[in-house]
Amino acid sequence: MPETGRDPNRPSPDALLEAARREERTRGRLKVFLGAAPGVGKTYEMLTIGRARLKAGADVVVGVVEPHGRAETEALLDGFEVVPRRAVPYHGTVLEEMDLDALLARRPQIALVDELAHTNAPGSRHPKRYQDVEELLDAGIDVLTTLNIQHVESLNDVVASITRIRVRETVPDGVLDRADDIEVVDLNPDDLIERLKAGKVYVPTNAERALKHYFSRGNLTALRELALRRTADRVDDELLSHMRANAIPGPWAAGERVLVCVSEDPRSAGLVRYAKRLADRLHAPWTALVVEGPRAASLTEAERDRVAEALRLADRLGGDAVTLPGGRRIADEILAYAQSANVNHIVVGKATRSWAFELVNGSVVHDLVRRSGNISVHVVPGEAVPTSDAGARRPVATAATPAAFDVRAYALALLATGAALGLALLLEPYTGIENADLMLLTAVVAVAVRWGLGPSLVAVVAASLSYNFFFLPPVYTLTISDPTNVAAFLLFTVVAVLVSNLAALARRTAVVSQGRAKATERLFGFSRKLAACGTLDDVLWATSAQVAAMLKVRVVLLLPDGQAVTVRAGYPPEDMLDEADLAAAQWAFDNERPAGRGADTLPGAKRLFLPMRTGRGTIGVIGLDADGTGPILTPEARRLLDALADMGALAIERVRLVEDLDRAERAAETDRLRQALLTSISHDLRTPLASVLGAATTLRDLDAALPAEAKGELLATVVEESERLNRFIVNLLDMTRLEAGAVAPNLAPQDVAETVDTALRRTQKVMAGHVVAVEIDPDLPTLRLDPVLFEQVLVNLLDNAAKYAPEGSTVTVRARHNGQSVRIDVLDEGFGLPEADVERVFDKFYRVRKSDHVRAGTGLGLAISRGFVEAMGGTVTAGNRHDRLGAAFTVTLPVPARTTPREIAA
Q1: Where residue 815 falls among pLDDT bands split at 50, 70, 90?
Q2: Helices (H), strands (E): how many in the chain?
Q3: Which of 170, 296, 477, 813 lies at 20 to 30 Å from 655 by C-alpha?
């Protein structure tokens, strides 16, 4: 937002500080080659620029470049120093990543780093390549990099809606915002499609699939527009910073911006709508501006309502609402703001003031037209809102009118004047009559500041008459004999009137400012309270309590539940509404207009109901009730309610969006689990069934021809695969019980060593190819466990170790007493767990794939083990061994109170 309250002819301090930081910084410079899609030539352009810098004498090094088999790109790499990549083992393969440490040690002047959005292999220092680039920049190394528009975080949803493909690798917008230079590498969609067909982007099989989905002409055109617009926004921001740093008044016609001037005129809402249409035609941002001059304090409540409603309308239509303090020349403030914001279109209403009013106060429209320079001024008639409609939309009580004649204030004004007169008479022998008028003027100013214009005018009359009666000869009469004293008397009266007016105006402005400061402070506190609310109930309670406290009313909040609205919160708590109130609330929600007490619709209701709106429409209804009869809200209270309701509505919408996102994530997780379950059933369960069926069929058909040894092997296969199938089914059933919350442990004192021995006997066939080492402390306390569940935990952990440890290796089961808990470790001598999989191994249906020799499974064993252990009050964790290669699973269970080894021995 442009700075306000400063001389537009002076440079912006913030812009100058930013320029100074850029000049003094030791951080490297970042240049991003931005493209709409793969294949537009970003890497080629980056290498071309790098080669030009290299020829100019710069120290240029290639950190990482992905040529993707394109011959022309590979040819450009000739002559560059390329830092060897770092090998990273991952899932039985070796991935090559940029060697960040080697690049930092080499410390070139410029580093070429391709694919900014790339995700690094697990085990790298940073999970994302853009974080590697940030470290290079912090080290003072300039970086040239490439990025596609679909990887920009803020555009992720937009790209997904266009292409129907969700991009997982994204770069925060802040990285792009901090870039020193962005160059768009553009290519016509038809030319890009031809490159794709020619095999210059993907291999032929992938290219054909890409043409049918991502690389359609419509998708490429939309992505191209996104890239150009994102870059144009960046250039526009740079232009504004340059203009402010150099005190350039503007506007520069580099982009369109619309400013609409809002006032108390009934046509202001029409002007706002016109500005919205104009901005849409120009594809430009727009702002609604209110300048509060000296007349703002004397506006009627209806006029203040119109200003507030116009600003709220601008906010709902997607514009910015700005309020500025101003002096008597409103046009100067408008033009200063327009120049600082690089506005080139000002929308203002056609003047309807009388010539006498314009003669005294000036014409804002005429001043704008005469002094706007290169800014286009749109003078439009606007659309006045009919009085009947305005009244229907704003059912508020008339503000309490101050008493026309406050006897106390006027009496005190006369008393203050009398006190000043007495002091002047007392001091007259010493100071003469020259200072008497100053003492009386002081009393007039004091009265104006304390009690306002009316009492001050009475004080002026009293002071003038007193000055004439007591100090102008002949004294003690109201006649003036000397003509020069007539001029003195008239001058004194005029000065007193002017001073009283100015002092009264200052008082009104101060009172308004104090009221606004107080309301702003409370609104800010309310916004902080809403920001801390994480659930819908918290937001509703905070909103209802704040409205009730600030407006001194009773509040209910209703939200839609299907087709009807229901009470969700209230202050004081309120759960039931009568039929009339419910009907009024439903009507207010359906028609987006107030209803109920004091409104034109259903005025017989006990409460007044007003819709709560956001940019997405009406999301609820707020109901107000107060003691007494008649309308509830004054105009000032209604404006405050509008602000509170808008903030509450936005908070409700925010919480609901979070809930929608959570539901979407749960739905996606459910879908993933369903797919995994189908995969498990179709493969993992069919495999043992096929083995059983094959062995049984062979026995049936070749029973007579088979030797006894072969029959024994086939029968063993049937038994082994049946047991395997039984384990799979048991795991599925156990997971179903865990998901349903039906696991209720039957806790009883158990000996850990005995349970370990039972589990080893159950897994004897599974562990046949491994050496099992058991290390159990002899003085372990008994634990309160469910023996069936704990045995299944150990069986699952041993089965997992047997799968991932090579044959002939040792699997160790260790149990140690550790303070108030017992720790059971299952250690294998396999390849260990990748860092990224340490927590994921406990996810349902997740399996770490190491090599082809690993037996298949459902991916449920570890998830079930964690569920069972936690049901018994313990924890289970995964990690890697510190003494050698291998995985380590640790079960920690609490020791019951007053259980000691001595008790066990007894």
Answers
A1: very high
A2: 29, 25
A3: 170
| CA atoms of 324 and 5, how far apart (whole Å) | 9
> Does residue 163 carry a pLDDT above 90?
no
Closest residue by Cα to residue 749 from 794, 786, 718: 786
pLDDT for the residue numbered 176 = 84
Model pLDDT, residue 606: 87
Distance CA(574)–CA(457), nearest Å, equals 52
Helix, strand, or coil (residue 621): strand
- Which one has a higher pLDDT value, 137 or 468? 137
- Terminal-residue alpha carbon distance, the chain: 80
Query: Among 296, 402, 321, 399, which Cα is nearest to 636's?
Result: 399
Inform me whether the pLDDT recorded for 4 exceeds 50: no
Both structure tokens of 594:
């107030």
- What is d(CA 564, CA 501) in angstroms, rounded to the nearest whole number? 56
Residue 826 has pLDDT above 90, yes or no: yes
pTM over 0.90: no
Dist CA 257 CA 243 (whole Å): 15
Q: Among 379, 308, 381, 371, which residue's Cα sits nearest to residue 334?
A: 371
* 3-class DSSP assignment, residue 104: helix
Task: List the beta bridge partners of residue 564.
Answer: 561
Letter string b/e over residues 743-777, b meaning 16 or more CB atoms within 10 A of that residue's CB: bebebeebbbeebbeebbebbeebbeebebeeebe
DSSP state of 255: S
CB 288 within 8 A of CB 322: yes
Give the burial string for 590-615 (b: 16+ CB within 10 Å, else e). Answer: beebbbbbbbebbeebebbbbbbbbe
Rounded distance between C-alpha atoms, residue 884 and residue 880, angstroms: 9
Instruction: List pLDDT tens digits, range 566-599.
Output: 988 888 887 678 888 888 999 999 988 888 888 8
pLDDT at 620: 92
What six digits make up the tokens of 405?
């004649």
Kindly report the backbone phi and psi dihedral angles of residue 432, in degrees, each rounded to the nearest multiple of 5, phi listed first. Answer: 80, 180
Structure tokens at 391: 């009244």
The tokens for 495 are 């000065």
> What are the residue ranges of helices labelled H in 780-824?
787-804
pLDDT tens digit string along 41-60?
888 889 999 999 999 999 99
Closest CA to 876 of 859, 858, 857, 893: 893
Pairing of strands 110-113, 60-64: parallel
Tokens 């808990």, residue?
Answer: 821
**Mean pLDDT of the region 460-479:** 80
Is-contact 459 443, C-beta < 8 A?
Answer: yes
User: What is the token pair recorded at 810?
Assistant: 């040792």
Reply yes or no on whether the pLDDT at 396 is more than 50: no
In the prediction, which pLDDT does 132 show? 92
Give the residue from 61, 144, 67 showing the smallest Cα distance to 103.
61
DSSP class of residue 178?
Answer: T
The confidence score (pLDDT) of residue 20 equals 53
Q: What count of other Cβ atoms lies within 10 Å of the Cβ of residue 564?
A: 12
The total of other beta-carbon atoms located within 10 Å of residue 885's CB is 12
Q: What percent of the chain is predicted at pLDDT more than 90?
A: 13
Q: For residue 193, give both structure tokens.
A: 């499609």
Q: Is the pLDDT of residue 859 over 60?
A: yes
**Chain centre to alpha carbon of residue 669:** 24
Task: Give the angle subtended at the CA of 784 by the CAs of 783 and 788, to the nearest 5°.
Answer: 105
Query: Tell me, what DSSP letter sits at residue 680?
Result: I
| Bridge partner list, 291 | 324
Type of residue at 160: A
Say whether 166 sits in a helix, a strand or coil.
coil
